[in-house]
Amino acid sequence: MQASANAARIAENEKPKSKKFSLKTPYMKQGRVTQLVAETTNMWIHTKINAEGGENEIHQHLDEDHAFIVLEGQMSVFDETGAELKIEQYQGVMIPRGAYYRYLNTGDDNLVVLRVGAGAKKQKQEGDAMRLGKDGKPLPVLPPLSAADQALYDPGKTTYMNTCAVCHHEAGYGNAGKGPALLDSDWLENEERLVRLVLHGARGPIAINGEPFNSEGALEMPAWAPSMDDQKIAGILTFVRREWQENPQPVQPATVARIRAATSNRSTQWTEKELLEIK
Ligand code: HEC
Predict the structure, then answer these.
(1) Smaller CB count within 10 Å for the chain: N or C?
(2) Domains plus CATH for the chain?
(3) Residue 236 CA: which ligand 1 atom is closest?
(4) Please, what are the averages of pLDDT over each run of 10 residues along the chain (279 residues)?
């Protein structure tokens, strides 16, 4: 038998031994945890439990191959083009080093996965979470949010997931027959239009990055001005921009307040034409 050239020699005084491990995990009402189950130098096993959400940011690992195996629940794994793999209980996904992905809990309850990683753990990472531009190329890593903007982002994310995701998808990919994609949408850029659109909604055909959407005019974006205060809308939009825009700027509550006051006599949803007239 020939030993692999790469395998480290076992030292004279080393006495490797088998070790039992358990896969018991807590049941959670919210949030997520990752627990180390067992590891050696070349392989590491974790359990990950997600009450909701997942790893929202598209990223890659350059120093390990890893696999997720679903023990309970259901997950969706997306690549950088938005292509989706649905992984059900007792199915798994192999993620080779360098492959971009993000995942979401798409079941009704806790998602419990076994994560097995293998590779060169000490090797230098070239950026862990990586955002991709429209051309699929990596974008520069964003500077962290200020404490004040983080305080908008965090509740904004929760509101987005509870209110907007049903039509626009948890990862901003849009939902056929309900709402268009927000990921890389050019509507995230102009703040005056964006805030108006969320305050009073939109109806009729609309182009997103030059692609026609809602050509029949059957779909509508509801108005949120009646049910959401300035702080809430600023939070959602700070989150949406940070996740899905190339050069994101937070949206401040004062901006929403100003635009709300300026459009207070509006009673109908915006049309694309009306919004484009706003500079
Ligand atoms: C009931 C489904 C629905 C919900 C809920 C909803 N939207 Fe929309 N949204 C739409 C539709 C439909 C359009 C396209 C409107 C049109 O055709 O003029 C749209 C358009 C948009 C656009 C501009 C187009 C784009 O793709 O960038 C943004 C931005 C947006 N919505 C943000 C939000 C935010 C933020 C929320 C949560 C506060 C939300 N939406 C909730 C259905 C929805």
Answers:
(1) N
(2) 32-119 (2.60.120.10), 147-277 (1.10.760.10)
(3) 35
(4) 50 82 82 83 88 75 88 92 92 91 90 89 50 64 89 95 91 84 92 98 94 92 97 98 90 98 96 97
